Amino acid sequence: MKKFLIACLLISGSAMAKDITIKVNGMVCSLCAQGIEKKFKDVSEVSSIKVDLDNKVVFLTTKGDLDINDESITKIITGAGYNVASIERK
Fold it and tell me: pTM of the full predicted structure?
């Protein structure tokens, strides 16, 4: 039974979604937030996105064991017309 539980933990641990917090400069209105949401909805690694316009922050959650690198995130944000101030992962 112990081996089974350990195996389950190892499998689920490797397939855990990642939470990514991105501080964005230049977002000033709801259309800005909608534009960023739309860009990330097309990214296959992203399972959810939330934009906090008041604090100029984008919250991403990845799908399972998939990940999106900082360079890709920065490219998407700058391509939408904004600047990345920081990227944090949890």
Answer: 0.80
